[in-house]
Design goal:
Elements lengths: L3 H15 L1 H32 L16 H9 L5 H20 L1 H6 L5 H35 L4 E4 L3 E4 L1 H33 L2 H21 L28 H28 L4
Antiparallel strand pairs: 1-2
Length: about 280
């Protein structure tokens, strides 16, 4: 016999995939990858030569630098804005749509616990985010390696770093894992914003603004000393640490633990806010 929590979760999954925006979002992510691959197919070599023009005067490059590893790394860079924005749009819509259509009021009239209801939405949001990141990793990997093959990876991360093919594959896979933590954080933040603002358009605007501000602050790197790493916006590029020559495992684990803490805190605030405020 299924518990109430299981029934709620299954209902949320059904409603999530019944919304057309969910399928549009997944389709947009796939289309974005195809566009990146087509651009690399037609212009990749010229762009690569332009980037390495000065270095070729001092170094001899052997092998195919434009390969699947580099394309997967380019897809990874959608984690700065495109992927979290799409996730925030879909996740926030899980609640705002029900509020605007009056469905939420009807559901609450059945006597269901508010905390249990909103908790199920946060849980589904987290799992949906992880599944989406996994799908992006799989599709980008399959398409990139199928059309461009394997090879050594070069990236600019403070310096020009080269990684052999097997090492590059491991680093890319781990970068997706670390990036998933950041995506979960943005997803639960968008659901908290939906709880607060209750309207789709308002929530999307504030969510986009929040994402832009986070990226700007990350680039500015405000603050001095060890404590600046406590700010959540300084944690969202943790996946990039896998492309340092020596992987700083201790810093990565600390950053991911802090991201989990922030995500849990945001979720608890959202559950408390939803349970304490009237449903209009």
């Amino acid at each position: 016999m299924m518990t109430n929590n299981t029934v709620l979760s299954r209902t949320e999954w059904f409603k999530l995939f019944r919304q057309s925006r969910t399928w549009y979002a997944l389709g947009a992510l796939l289309l974005l990858q195809v566009i990146l691959l087509l651009n690399a197919w037609y212009q990749g070599e010229s762009i690569l030569n332009m980037l390495l023009e000065n270095l070729k005067q001092s170094f001899h490059f052997q092998g195919e630098l434009l390969n699947g590893h580099l394309l997967v790394y380019i897809v990874l860079n959608t984690m700065w804005f495109h992927l979290p924005l799409i996730l925030m749009i879909v996740v926030s819509g899980m609640l705002t749509t029900e509020i605007e259509t009056g469905t939420l009021r009807t559901v609450m009239m059945t006597g269901i616990s508010r905390k249990r209801f909103i908790r199920s939405k946060f849980l589904v949001a987290v799992v949906f985010t992880l599944v989406t990141v996994l799908l992006v990793a799989i599709t980008s990997g399959v398409l990139s390696y199928l059309f461009f093959g394997f090879g050594d990876l070069f990236v600019f991360h403070g310096a020009l770093n080269f990684f052999e093919s097997e090492d590059a594959f491991f680093r890319l896979a781990m970068a997706f894992v670390a990036g998933a933590f950041s995506m979960v954080f943005f997803s639960v933040c968008s659901l908290l914003l939906a709880v607060i603002f209750r309207e789709t358009v308002k929530t999307w605007i504030v969510a986009a603004f929040f994402l832009i501000v986070c990226n700007l602050l990350l680039q500015m790197q405000p603050g001095e000393g060890w404590w600046k790493s406590l700010f959540f916006f300084n944690l969202n590029d943790t996946w990039q640490l896998f492309f340092q020559y020596e992987i700083p495992w201790e810093q990565i684990l600390i950053n991911l633990a802090m991201l989990i803490g922030y995500a849990v805190a945001v979720s608890l605030i959202g559950i408390w806010w939803f349970s304490k405020n009237d449903i209009e």
